[in-house]
Structure formats: structure tokens, C-alpha cells
Amino acid sequence: KIIFYLDRRQKLLHPGKSLYRALLDSVTLSDENVKFQIVHEENKVLLQVEICEIEGNIFRLKIDEAAPIRARYKVSDVLIKEPTTKRLFISQEEADVLVLSSINKDYKLQVTAKPFQVELQSKDETVLSMNSNGLLYFEHLQPPPSDRKPTTKNKEEAASDLSKEEQDYLGLWQEKFGSFLDIKAHGPTSVGMDFSLHGFDHVYGIPQHTEALLLKNTSDGDAYRLYNLDIFGHKIHDKIGIYGSVPLLLAHKPNRTSGIFWLNSSETLVDINTKAVAEHTPSRSAAETAKQRAMPLTDVRWMSESGIIDVFLLMGPTAFDIFKQFAQLTGTQALPPLFSLGYHQCRWNYENEQDVKAVDAGFDEHDIPYDVIWLDIEHTDGKRYFTWDKKKFQNPRKMQEHLRKKKRKLVVIIDPHIKADPMYTLYSQAKDKGYFVKDRNGKDFEGICWPGSSCYLDFTNPEVRKWYADQFAFKTYKGSTNILFVWNDMNEPSVFKGAELTMQKDAVHYNNWEHREVHNLYGFYQQMATAEGLIRRSSGKERPFVLTRSFFAGSQKYGAVWTGDNTAEWGYLKISIPMLLTISIAGISFCGADVGGFIGDPEPELLVRWYQAGAYQPFFRGHSNMESKRREPWLFGKKNTQIIREAIRERYVLLPYLYTLFYRAHTAAEPVMRPLWVEFPGKIETFGVENEYMLGNALLVHPVTEQEAKAVSVLLPGSEEIWYDFRKFKRMEDSGTLKIPVTLENIPVFQRGGTVIPLKTTAGKSTEWMTDISYELHVALDTEACAIGELYLDDGHSFQYLHKTQFLYRKFTFHRNSLSSRCTDESGQYHTACVVERVIVLGFGQQPTFVTACSKDGKELEVAFTYDTKTSALMLENLALRIDADWEICIN
Ligand code: MIG
């Protein structure tokens, strides 16, 4: 077992009374913030504390050295703008307490001087407190031991009195990792703090781990680690960090959701400890103390290797408020081009042009829709990205023209490492311009990756990002066309033969920042530059599609992520659900796991089940490893082909709903895929559920993740809810936990009463073939016989929805036996001749006598219908109601 630096150093500090004291006579107050200093009683180092309130129920606490010998790293480019602050007021000031209030007095921050602690209260409820366990930790910058004057003998330098072995063990100035030596030019710089979440015993977030949805107690095990790493065949139930990190933790209890966003891009550990304590009341009278009840409390300890403490406290109070607050800071999900919500067919590798054509034709032959075929690293000339293997891909443009005619796209892989080959223009240019990350001696850092000896572009440098973005220009990227999109892999970054398969922490980036400071941002920056490149090659007109393996807070702005190298085993299918839910609630809606499992060969049943699950997840791609057998959906016998076809077709029929959900993610920060508790925040039985989830607010999906399952236990939450079988339209008799029989044909999906889902009446060969296909609305009535839903629509690929309001945003309302279609955003201008052809009303009380439809021009038409008394489903058919116009259907 590896003992990480942070564990060794910070874990020497145990919970107890903090040695930090606030100097409350140093308080200054401005419109932007409140500042004061705190001092460490032993080493006497002064830290500067800054507290501010940000619009929308967010508080920010920053702690930096008051007078560092050199500036400490502060994360840039993650916050989309400098947050708008609100003035705080001092509502109480005493020798050892300072109380700050928000203008509306909804929130109070109580700062205690000795020891230094901060408590955040909403009305009279203490929501969270900081440093209440005394774990504030801040290694101030020191001159290297050799620079020190021999006379200085104060305690702060006690560290240098440690024996060589002790120093080595603690890794103060250098650290060994196997055969690697990390030289810490600036010495120890780690920071940490504890937070107590009062009344909470359910915490979520901090992806990415191959772990459960509900975060576990770490008191007798490993902390959750946030350190982006390429871990091939990562284990299930492991807290080691894999490819991406979002340092956002959510805490939930029935009446409140809170969030902690720890903005730090260095290696980070998070310890979690839930316990029961006596109820905490801010102003405790004797009588109240007597009435104290036990209540849960969760302690969360964050430790980062470097940087400063910069933490955002998201006060909700609902989960949807948290999503908005986080998006206000880091941005919302980019609106994907519609094609990218279709099915993607990938493999390491599709060998050559003939192979691509054959696979493409296979989909048509087997009548399976798909949108994108992918090329992995072998398509390049010796792993030189932006080039083609001339033997295998002699005419990439022609191949793309072929795909274009089929209304399909191509995605190619572009990794961040650049083959160290002076004949490779990308390399020689970048070398000349000094665009590579340097090693600690100032030479270009060289590591081994796919192409052999490679250098790594320094994407933290804005000039490098601009140059990189320019590489995607059609003129520069030979053989590329506008149906080619990009996949960024290996961007943790992955460095073969590097410590933990990544870059040395003492490598040096732009502005002399060490790699340790920016490690978790490397992939974020590559995807940013790639997305920018795709936008720029279209002169700003077209939406990009970029899939990345490594990510950070804010990556949602640039595209999609996937969960990396999973294995073709049932356990990985099962864990993919909580993994995707965790990524989703951390702001990244566009996420998926390799369908089938990347490593190994799935048995047909597993593959089928994985397609059925993937069809209801945001990013839907089949992918397989080089050593895996071919896995195109038609290779597993007639019956399995049929079932997979059906799953993929269901996905395509559902696209209007899914695209609308992405629009909501884009505009309102609502996750597309949601844990049950987000939709049912008051229902405790949902808090730990991770084997099913909500897709938007209307669909409950329960993938089958057990071999040979005959039945699954489904929780249909909410006693006041009505649920309908999504395919059979039958109203479920009960809510609660039901045993639902299953066959291999499909997985259980339910529509929630009170919702309207827009669908297409049938699937086409790809999304682009489906533009004119008519719509179908599934209206599921609630206990009041009402339902609402919406549809968002635009050209599916450009930015015209933004600049020229070329979009349609419709709302469907069912009320008093009438269904209406109205505009929700009058500024939308998009027109289409597409119609609603069919409406199915689920849970309709009785057989109607006649049904009419009126369009805006006053024309009233009688509508043909059938009513199924067994299921209470009313089907209205042969409608021709324009999707872009107002209309109303009346059922009598
Ligand atoms: O370690 O490019 O996760 O999807 O097919 C293998 C080859 C490198 C890892 C990616 C995988 C991709 C593969 N890559």
C-alpha cells in the first residue's frame, strides 16, 4: 500500500483544539469582502482570511499566507467570471467573536477567535462549521534548508532539525516514489481544513472513483483521493483517484442540500466521517440543552498538496439550487450537437477505410441506427496526432464524404503527448516555440507514451491553447472535414514509466508553476483548447463535440466525458450507474461508460444488458479494447441483434426528450441523469438508491445488472405519485418497492404521472435522417389528472439558437381533459413543418365520446382515437398538429 505524502504529513495533526487564533482587531470590511488575519500560536505565521457572500446563496472563504515569500498558486480559468459579491454586515463584534450577516439576515457567519472557527447559520439552523475539529493546516513557504541562516532557531524551522530519515519519510523537500524522485523546489506547501455538516448523514459527489453513490466513512480506511490517473482496469470499490476530479461534495437531508466546492487542482484527499452527536443549537439556553436530541453530523476533511484554501459553500437550499450555484461559478453543460446524443460505434481500432465502410454498412444492413464511427490511435502515422496512416487511410476525405452521404460523422482520437520527432511539424514547431512542459532542470519534459519518447504540450499556457486550437483548421489538419470531431484520451496526463503512470510533480509549466499545482487541470485545459479549435475551424458557427477522459470542475463547458477503461464484467455495468450519477451531480451531464466494457469480452447477455442501460444514459458509445474480439451489435446471433437493435431504436425515439433535457442542463444546470433523491428530496428511502435513476424528471430507469435475472426490485418512490410502465402504458398498482418480472427483451422503465414526454414516432438511420419524422407525446396523468412537459428544438448543430434565436421551446399542458401546446419562450424563431402525429394519454379515466383538435386559426377537427380499458390508455392518432404552432386537443 502506498502511503501518500498528504497522509503522512497532515495526518500527524489530529482532531483537537486548533492552534490558529483569529486577530479580530485586524478586521476590515468592504463591499466585496471581510478580511482579517489568523495566527498560528506556535509558528506565529500569519494567514490572511477573506470571507465573502456571493449572489445566490454562496459563501466563499479564502485563506492564504499574509506575506508569502513567493505567490502561491491560485486556480485560474475554472470560474467563468469573478463572482458578484454582496456586502456583509457586522452584526456583533466582541473580543473573541465576530458575527457577520447577509443583507437579508438569512445567513450568519460566526467567527470565533480562539481557536479560530467559522460557523455558517441559515436562519437559526447551523448548517456547517469550519475548523471545528481543529484541522486547519497550512504549510507556509520557507526558504530551502540550505539557504537558511544557521542562527535562526525558532520553532518554525524545527522541521529542519529532523533527521534525514524523518525528513525523507515526511517528504518535506523531496520525496521518493519507487525509483522516482520528486524534488520540491518550494518545500512543503500543503493545505487542509475540516468542515462539519450538521444534521447530514448522506454525502455525495467528489468524482471520480469506481465507488458507490453514497460516500462512505473513511475513518478506518483510505480517504477519497482526487488525483487524475490512468489506471488500466481500475478495481471496483476503490477510493483511489481515476481519470478525472471534481472537488465538489454535496450533503443532503430531507429539508436541505448543501455543497462544498474546494477549488484546488493539486492532489487532494477527502476524509469523511459520519457520526451521531447531540443536537447543535447556536444559542443554547439551559432548557434547550436539556432537550437535546442525538442527530447526525458528517465531518469532511479536505487536504491538498499545494495552493491556497479557496472554498465555496453552496447553501442550496435545494439540490437544484446547488446545481445552479455550482454552474454560476463553473458554467453549465455545453449544448451538444444532436448527432452526439445518438449511438457511437468505437473500437480500438477500426483498421482502415474498408473496415470503416464495412462497419458503417453493417448498421444499415441490420437496420440499426447509429451516428458516429470512431478511430483510435492506430489511424495515425505512428501515433503522430493530426496525421493519417497513409496505408490504412489513403483517402480520409473521401471516406468522410462517404460517411457524410450516409448522414454520419467521424470522431478521431487526439492525445496530448507529441512524438519527439524533429520531422513531425507539430513537434518541431512546439519545440521551437517552447510550448512543452519542462522538467525541473528546464529542459522539455520527455516521457514515454504510445509514440515512444514524447513531449507534453503545456495547455495551461493560453498561447499554447490558441496555437493548438489553430491546428484544427481544415487547412492545417490535412484530411479533416467538418464531420470530423475529436476524442482527447491519455490527458491525466498518462506517462508510461512515470510515477503512478503520470507526469513528475516537479515538472514545470507556464509561469513557472510546478506540475503538482495544476495536475488535475491538465485534461480540462486540453479539452478547452480542442473545443475552441473546433469552434474556430467553423468560424464560430458550429458546436463542437469533444470527448475527454480527464476532467475537472467546469469541464462540462467543453463537451463530454467517459469513465475510461472499465471491464466487460457485470460488476462494472452495475457500478457505472453510481459513477455516472456522481459525475452528473458534479455538473457534467454529458457522461457515459463504454458499453460492453472496454477490457475483455462480454458474454452476449452482458452486452445486451449494457446496450439497454446505455440507451438511457447521456453519452452512448460501444467501445472495446485492442485485444477484445470484434463486438459490432450484430455479431451475437439473430435474437441478440434484434434486442440490441430495439434498445438503440428506443434511444433514437427518445431523442426529443433527451435533447430537451440537455437544453435544461445547458440553461438551468439541471443534470440529465439524476439520483432518485434529487427528485424526491424528502423521501429517505431514496437517499442511497444507486441501481436505478431518473432521466430528467419524467423517467425512472432500472437497468438490469444481474446475470439471468428473472425479476428486479424496483423502488417507485412517493406514495402520492402514479407510475406507468413506459412501454405497456399500464398504470402500476402500487408505489414503493415492487418485484418486477424481467425478460431479456428490455429493462424496466417507468414514466412518472404528471409528465409529458416528447418522442419521435420511429427511429431513422441516424439523427440527421430523423429531422422530418413526426412526434408522439406520452401524457402521463397524475392524481389530479394533470400533466406538463416540454420540447426544445433547433437545427441541432449550430450556435444560431444563441445568436439568432433559431430555436423552438414548447410547453405541453394537460388539464381538465384538454391538452395544449404553447410557446414557452417567445423569442424562439425556429420553424419546421414537423407535426405531432400521435398522442397517448396514460391513466385516462374513461372512454371518451368524441375528441377534437383546434389549431390557432380556429379550425376544429375531429380526432380518431382508441381507448384501452385494460390499461386506461387513450391513443389519439393521425393527428397533424404542427410542432411549431399552438393548438389544443379537447377530450369529451
Ligand atoms: O491505454 O487509445 O481509455 O478508450 O481505446 C490505452 C487506446 C489507451 C485508453 C482509452 C481507450 C482507448 C485506448 N486508450
UniProtKB/TrEMBL annotation:
Chain coiled-coil ranges: none
GO biological process terms held by the UniProt record: carbohydrate metabolic process; N-glycan processing
Keywords for the protein's UniProt record, in alphabetical order: Glycosidase, Hydrolase
Hydrolase is among the record's keywords: yes
Family: Belongs to the glycosyl hydrolase 31 family.
Domain Glycosyl hydrolase family 31 C-terminal residue range list: 670-757
Designated name of the protein: GANC glucosidase
Compositional bias per record (Basic and acidic residues), positions renumbered to this chain: 146-163
Keyword Hydrolase: yes
Sequence segments annotated as region (Disordered): 141-163
Positions of the Glycoside hydrolase family 31 TIM barrel domain: 334-661
Molecular-function GO terms, alphabetical: alpha-1,4-glucosidase activity; carbohydrate binding
Domain Glycoside hydrolase family 31 N-terminal: 49-271
InterPro entries: Gal_mutarotase_sf_dom (IPR011013), GH (IPR017853), Glyco_hydro_31_AS (IPR030458), Glyco_hydro_31_C (IPR048395), Glyco_hydro_31_N_dom (IPR025887), Glyco_hydro_31_TIM (IPR000322), Glyco_hydro_b (IPR013780)
